[in-house]
Amino acid sequence: MTPLLSVQNLVVSYGTFRAVDDVSLTVDRGSTVAVVGESGCGKSTLASAIVRLIRPASGRILLGGTDIATLPEKRLRPLRHRIQMVFQDPYGSLDPHLTAQEIVAEPLRLRGRHDRAARAREAASLLDRVGLPSSACGRRPAEFSGGQRQRIGIARALASEPELLVCDEATSALDVSVQAQVLELLREIQRDTGVAYLFISHNLGVVREISDSVVVLRAGRVVESGATDAILSAPAQPYTRALRRAALDPATMRGRKPRALVAAATLSDSPGATVAPVEGDGS
Questions:
Q1: pTM reported for the whole predicted model
Q2: Which residues does the chain have with pLDDT short of 50?
Q3: In the sheet where 5-14 sits, what is the strand order?
Q4: Which of 38, 59, 233, 243 has the fewest other C-beta atoms within 10 Å?
Q5: Which 3-state string (H, E, C) describes 76-115?
Q6: pLDDT at 248
Q7: What domains are defined for the chain?
Q8: Beta-carbon neighbour count of residue 53 at 10 Å?
Q9: Residues with Cβ within 8 Å of residue 19, at least 6 apart in sequence
Q10: Nearest CA among 108, 106, 84 for reference residue 95
Q11: How far apart are CA 215 and CA 228, in angstroms?
Q12: DSSP annotation of 174
């Protein structure tokens, strides 16, 4: 079957600097692919290029077989609803002057839903779908917690009925308990709708919880990729092993830290050790 998303030899440049350098990856329908790497490695630039917030210098971005990498905006606009983004900052990505209902209804208007009352009803239904009460409809972003704002962002993305959601560090600004709630919400939505996720993250605990496969990025280039369990249990590349050691350093740990992943890392870094499959418990 044709992948939902196929990124081929993608390059994104800022002047002479290549922020994304010859990156290729695929996302199948209904699957979750994580992109991991240290800060500044090009993860967010890659995400922005895939949703065409920035234009790549070269390479292909095939969405259901259609190359959107170089499409002019007029031809790209009818395809934008198929691929949506959930941003890292759950406050900065929302218009502070609009109510939650208005924020979620805006994509419906752009898609040609002309009946204002119908848009409002559908927006309220989407807010309910992401676990926000009906009383949330008339409130503005400043009146919500960070986790609630991220739910509004997810509802806004779902209003476009996307086939692919690109989540750019979508849980990094949230505390551990709220992270768990948002991850469970994303899993429920995927089960119900079949939407695929490209999940950008630096948090290996979150990646273990949500993804089927992992792409490891270093200085804009892919250094390793494969099934999540295999990559986190026994990474082949020194860079990936260094990422895991850094993630398991108590001084740098953030978010979900599966105990079994800690144990696996300790074993795998011992000479002659045999690594068992990771069974993260999310604690």
A1: 0.83
A2: 249-283
A3: 17-27, 5-14, 58-63, 66-67
A4: 38
A5: HHHHHHHEEEECCCCCCCCCCCCCHHHHHHHHHHHCCCCC
A6: 60
A7: 5-268 (3.40.50.300)
A8: 12
A9: 12, 13, 42, 45, 220
A10: 106
A11: 9
A12: S
